[in-house]
Amino acid sequence: MARGQKKNTGFSEKELELLRNFSPNTSSKGMAVFWIHALYVVIVPIWIQARVHQYPVGEQMIYLVLGTLLQAFALQFAYKNVKNVQKEKIALQRTEAVSAEVTAQVGTKVARQELEDRILWRKGEVAENESIHFSILYNNCIYLGLYLLFSVIFFKNWAPLTNYTFSIIVAAGAVAGISRTK
Question: Is 69 helix (H, G, I), strand (E, B) or coil?
């Protein structure tokens, strides 16, 4: 096939849009939301280490930057996994409400097939947004809870760098691992 030519899939543009709505891929907007949330959530351990454990932030900046990036990657991975599982469940739960909403908006002005397509599109949009936000909340709660548990209780007597390193590895690793089991 020559460069620039589209592959003929046999689907119309509307059908392709519906397929994209229900694919497990996360939109670029969703990925940006995931990365932003992951980056600001993983900064919380730095603040805790600096204030509670008296971690010398200026002297250990390379460890903090590496730890932050690794944690953000693990959280983003977990966000995506949980979102994919929850999207289907949310879509099933919101079917009646979305159908009523779309029917109230367009009424009997459109053909039945067009109405069903609009309902499917809106259901995918609602499920995408709700699953993104649920995934962020769910994973952040688990991550911060585990981090506090290990940092403040289990590793509290360890040296600050060791405490930070093991706490973030356990918390981020557990969240990424838990996300794969759903």
Answer: helix
Whether 179 shows a pLDDT value over 80: the answer reads yes
Q: What is the maximum alpha-carbon separation in the chain?
A: 69
CA distance 65 to 60: 9
DSSP-assigned letter for residue 109:
S
pLDDT of residue 169: 92
- Residue in 171, 175, 168 with CA at minimum distance from that of residue 53: 168
d(CA 18, CA 107): 21
Q: Residue 134 has what pLDDT?
A: 92
Distance CA 15, CA 120 (A): 11
Is residue 41 within 8 Å of 75, Cβ to Cβ? yes
Residue pair 17/10 in contact (Cβ under 8 Å)? The answer is no
pLDDT tens figures, 76-135: 999 998 988 888 888 888 888 877 887 787 777 777 777 788 778 888 888 888 888 999
Give the C-alpha separation, 173 to 161, whole Å. Answer: 18
Contacts 24+ apart (CB under 8 A), 94-98: 94/123, 94/126, 94/127, 94/130, 95/123, 98/122, 98/123, 98/126
Contact indicator for 40, 144 with CB cutoff of 8 Å:
no
Distance CA 56, CA 161 (A): 9
DSSP H or E segment with residue 180: helix 160-180
